[in-house]
Amino acid sequence: MTAQPSTNKKVTLEELADLCVRRGFFFQSGRIYGGLSGFYDYGPLGVELQRNILNSWWRWFVELRSDVYGLDGSIITHPRTWEASGHVESFIDFLVSCKKCGSEYRADALLEELGIRVTSLTAESLKRAIEDHGVRCPVCGGELSDPRPFNLMFTTTVGPRREQPLVAYLRPETAQLIFTNFKNIVFAMGATLPFGVAQYGKAFRNEISPRGFLFRLREFTQMEIEYFVNPRKLNSCPYFEEVKDLKVNLLTAEDQEEGRQETREITLGEALERGFITTAWHAYWIGESLRWLWSLGLDPRHLRVREHVKSELAHYAVQTFDIEYYFPFMGWKEIVGISNRSDYDLRRHQEYSGESLHIVDDGEKVVPHVIEPSFGLERVILAVLTEAYTTEGSRTYLRLKPEIAPFKVAVFPLVKRDGLDTKALEVYRILRAHFRAYYDDDGSIGRRYAKADEIGVPYCVTIDGQTLADNTVTVRFRDTREQVRVPLSSLVDTLRTFIEKGVTRAETSYTVSAGKEPEGR
RNA sequence: GCGGCCGUAGUCUAGUCUGGUAGGAUGGCGGCCUGCCACGCCGCAGAUCCCGGGUUCAAAUCCCGGCGGCCGCACCA
Fold first, then answer.
1. pLDDT digits (tens, 9 = 90+) for A12-44
2. Is residue A521 part of a domain?
3. Angstrom distance, A14 CA to B16 C1'
4. Exposed, middle or buried by CB within 10 Å (0-12, 13-18, 19+), for A54?
5. Are residues A369 and A427 in the same domain?
6. Do A40 and A119 belong to one domain?
7. Which bases on strand B have an atom closer than 7 Å to a protein beta carbon?
8. Distance of CA A408 to the CA centre of its chain
9. CATH code, domain carrying A134
10. Is the CB of A90 under 7 A from strand B?
């Protein structure tokens, strides 16, 4: 596979963002006051899409398994959590600015660029290093300001205390709440290794420069799993068979360090055998994550698995693979990160809290190792919308999987008279008890179809003159505009089957979604 | 955060250079028409001209500062 996959999608970020705002998916937050960078509000359609994707994720990773528990931790979090996790220390950048031209630099990056080794990341030592080496602004030679710390975590104060306020952090990742609840879950649920904990919710990072519509936000939604494994059993994954033959587009750290940007098509089994992925559990979760993304309709050719090079690795990570999606307007971008966090987090929390965070497995006390698949919901949504965005002549529509489409069905009277509208409202009332549905009798039938297509409604039910005679309606398919006639008495069952099987055309050879059968794990 | 470009109804945009009544399209609402793919007609509503300050008799327009957006750089646990 080449570095840039061929794609017939010419959609630009502006077109996509325009549709999203115009049709009520997303709005920039605080727009009436001039806008606030890095924050978006979910509109009426966005909130449906979001719920559908969250539900799909929860079903796939929690409900269809027996080894993953759910959790919903607090957003404002005990400050010691982040001292233990390393975020208070590692999540800081020291910035210096030029007093003459105003250019801003990351102090440690500037020093390292000049070949000066940075021994400790404190304001004092950075200041001394700048003074000792007489470092000046590389742009204009001007004098540099003192380094000032910038932590990417948002803070808030808890309670009414004004003197020495209790400063707490808005979580920069949901993961830590799983680690700090590890013992609670083990005790309450009687969990035994291996097992995982899944959580989704808001996370907050005070990004220096939010960009790219939903791509880099200051407030966003993570869907994370921390999967705990006995460190001596990292290569014994009973589910590995399920993913070993999956083909992935892999770009290893070694390839990148040697300047290669082309992925290799390889099965996960082979990637593990050849040591590209170091543990079977890690490879398994890469496969499982990919399978879920495929189930949302993302084209496997637009996804690749890229290993982090050493310099990219987070302070807690031993090995990380990003699943990247090819956005025609931005190139390859991370939508999922799957890290091997080893026992870093649990050990740190043991150290800082004094609580023992072990579990007994096969009669021995172990602090488990962790594989973490971490999904960025807004990034997944952006990828899904990009993939779905389709233009045919002047027609624009979203080819969303019926399972995740905000509305499953729209109900139209062919015309608004002769009692067709009354009958259509009756049909609508029946359908809305079963599916997310809406009724529209405004303007021409063609316009109503087009507007439904634009927001990805997979099925339009139309009530016409024949309906009054024989109680049948037409069901129109979004992708092909074909219509079939269905008796009103079986409409609900027919639509339910269509949605479950992901039918998007009238052919009998139904397009079956990449679904997953319950496997009794 | 830096540099470049930009900011006018929900959306797209004319007007900005050369200061003097904010105009169009689309979308929205009401009505008529309409028997299958963004039909047509009539009417109505909709603009803090991004915000603040300055210059001026007069500012969407010129100047300064801020906010927001796009692109590039940097950043991205």
1. 888 899 899 999 999 988 888 888 889 999 999
2. no
3. 25
4. middle
5. no
6. no
7. 1-3, 7, 10-12, 27-30, 33-39, 48, 50-51, 66-77
8. 23
9. 3.30.40.230
10. yes
pLDDT-derived band of residue A120, with 50, 70 and 90 as boundaries?
low
DSSP A24: T
Whether residue A500 has pLDDT greater than 80: yes
Report chain A's terminal Cα–Cα distance, integer Å: 35
Identify the domain boundary among A344, A366, A388.
Answer: A388
Answer whether residue A267 is part of any domain: yes
User: Cα(A428)–Cα(A244) distance, rounded to whole angstroms?
Assistant: 46
CA distance A517 to A521: 11
Distance (Å, whole) CA A357 – CA A181: 10
A50 touches strand B (CB under 7 A): no
Please write down the HEC assignment for all residues of A51-87: HHHHHHHHHHHHHCCCCEEECCCCCEECHHHHHHHCH
* CATH number, domain containing residue A425: 3.40.50.800
Q: Is the pLDDT of residue A509 over 70?
A: no
d(CA A340, CA A226): 10
Q: Indicate the number of domains in chain A.
A: 3
Residues A503 and A482: beta-carbon distance below 8 Å? no
SS3 content of chain A, % helix, strand, coil (to 5): 35, 25, 40
Look up the CATH number of the domain holding residue A39. 3.30.930.10
Q: Do A236 and A337 sit in the same domain of this protein? A: yes
A126 & A237 share domain: no
Whether A348 and A464 share a structural domain: no
What is the residue whose two structure tokens read 């080894």?
A67
Statement to judge: residues A471 and A444 lie in one domain: yes
Scan residues 91-110 of chain A and list those with Cβ within 7 Å of strand B.
91, 93, 97, 102-106, 109
A5, part of any domain = no
| A133 within a domain of the structure (yes/no) | yes
Would you tell me how many other CB atoms lie within 10 Å of the CB of residue A158?
Answer: 12
Last residue in a domain, options A102, A126, A151: A151
Alpha helices in A244-279 (DSSP H): 253-257, 268-273
* DSSP codes joined into one string, A163-174: SS-EEEEE-S-S
Domain hosting residue A37, numbered range:
13-84+168-388
Question: For chain A, what is the total number of helices (H) and then of strands (E)?
Answer: 18, 26
Place of tokens 């690795």: A313
Per-residue pLDDT tens for A395-449?
Answer: 889 999 999 999 999 999 999 888 899 999 999 999 999 999 999 998 889 999 9
One domain, residues A290 and A346? yes
